[in-house]
Automatic annotation (TrEMBL):
It comes from Populus alba x Populus x berolinensis. The lineage of its organism: Eukaryota, Viridiplantae, Streptophyta, Embryophyta, Tracheophyta. Residues 343-389 are annotated as: Disordered. Residues 343-354, 365-378 have a biased composition (Basic and acidic residues). Residues 189-446 form the Macro domain. GO terms for biological process: single strand break repair. One of its GO terms (molecular function) is DNA 5'-adenosine monophosphate hydrolase activity. It comes from the Eukaryota. GO terms for cellular component: nucleus. This is Macro domain-containing protein.
Amino acid sequence: MLQKKELPKLNEGFARIVFCHNENDVEATIKAYSALGPLDTLSNGCFGQKNPDAKIQLGIMKFLKKVEAPSSLGSCSDSVQDSACPQASNANNTCCKGTTKQSLLLGAASKEVKESEDMAKGSVDADVSAGDITTLAFPSISTADFQFNNEKASDIIVEKVEEFVNKLENARLVLVDLSHGSKILSLVRAKAAKRNIDSKKFFTFVGDITRLYSQGGLHCNAIANASNWRLKPGGGGVNAAIFAAAGPSLETATKERAKSLLPGHAVVVPLPSDSPLYTREGVSHVIHVLGPNMNPQRPNSLNNDYTKGCSILREAYTSLFTGFLSIMRSRLKLPRRISEKLESSPSDLKDPSHGPRNHLTNSDQKIKRDDDSVYERSKKCKGTHNETVADISAPSSTYGKVTGDKSKLEGPTSKSWGSWAQALYHIAMHPEKHKEKLLEVLDAVVVLNDLYPKACKHLLVLAQHEGLDCLADVHQEHLQLLMTMHAVGLKWAEKFLHEDSSMVFRLGYHSVPSMRQLHLHVISQDFNSNHLKNKKHWNSFNTAFFRDSVDVIEEIKNHGKATIKVEDCQLSMELRCHRCRSAHPNIPRLKSHISICQAPFPHALLENGRLVLAPKHNWSDT
DNA sequence: GTTCTAGAAC
DNA sequence: GTTCTAGAAC
């Protein structure tokens, strides 16, 4: 615990952060600082110490944060919003009461106290929640190992921040340094204050850039990496730390984007969802940026040519912030985390291991409920949150417009099926009229090729039972039928595997099918088809929208109905490889990637027979 | 489900 | 300029 004698006097313009490990430390720290002068209570449980002569004030900010393994953050993810770090929050949230707390003690010159107060107020008054503030954390480029002059660098940082800060709307930039005594941080702080840069949109932060959320409670969607030209891990400093923290998938994802980087340039890399930086810290993108090098012992040294150096450093920050703006734009277009959250089951929400991801998604959901103005609402997302099996029975435009065909209103779900959506229904009701299309006709099911296959092998096992339009209509009494459909699908998959043992199959249902009449998809996992043309096609087979037959059967056995999380946004969410989970910007790029990706399938798919493989196929080879 | 196409993104 | 997406119509 800090003793009074250990509290060095703060110089004007400097900040001090003290981490306390429990409530007693917090109280004792406040007491110790109180001894230096009277403390004023600020809003939101913060305290400020006024010293009018020195124009120094201290703000002690409590932020409620569990000091446990980072993976457990999710259990009080909402409470992290209560952080006095400049994240907006729900002031009423009390979920972490009684848990171990840390406190952040911040001393600052008068200008900065204004900033602290703003931060504290922001955590109470802001009408958007923390996860909605898109944040870029960036280290100072080139001032460490590349030995760029701090004075010059700080001028450029402030100049570029000033240029971009007005384009940020609901987003912010944070300059991060590990060291409390960081010269570049104090220079930038002073210069930013002088230029009256909005402290809600730009501030400095002392902490480990790879642990901003788990250690500092600061959620950042994107972090910048002071990279090397090879875009390789290693070296030292920030680059090594970020690659180490992100795990090997960052290197893979980076390689897909660029092989090397020129000084002054940046490359935006979406973080694969298995990266610890993504799961633990909530970072969705790493932006590698290469600055000018003044260190003669590193490649491409500029030999102290600061004319060139400054120009390149400006370019580097421009590239970095432009890259961040592009991430912001894509976020505005589609709040992707919403769909990711809805992909997870309700029980996942209670799973502490989800940490910042839930923190984000909860807040994204909140904003969709409370504030239409912040995000452009996707028409598709309206009114579809957490709908239950019963909810999806309501007529929906998803199913095409009412055509006057009386059959469209038949069946227990009473939803409107467009005329084009009736084809399978007609086949099931009158298989004898469609013999040429059928691969197999059995008592309860018929088998046919999908008219627009999305993979080399893609067929449908179609139930003949009238009144079973989709998964939502399936109940306990249909268990035997589901098992038959699965067995028939499996038999066909095995037949194909016999012909080509390298194939892999998946059997499952679309949560909300486009075509009427319950049908099981049997689809090979190559997804090599000209008919696979858009996001909806991909995501309907590669998100939670696709319900594995084995899981559906289990749910019917155990609960008498299938869990259906209806969320149209699932179908427009980001495109990720079904094997390595890497993200891709569009369908053509995704398709060229999946044509070569040899990564093993995710464990979740390899479990419980969700994937059907040739018996002797050795996945350790791939 | 597909096709068509305007306009956004590159 | 081309590529790509996403909404409307069917």
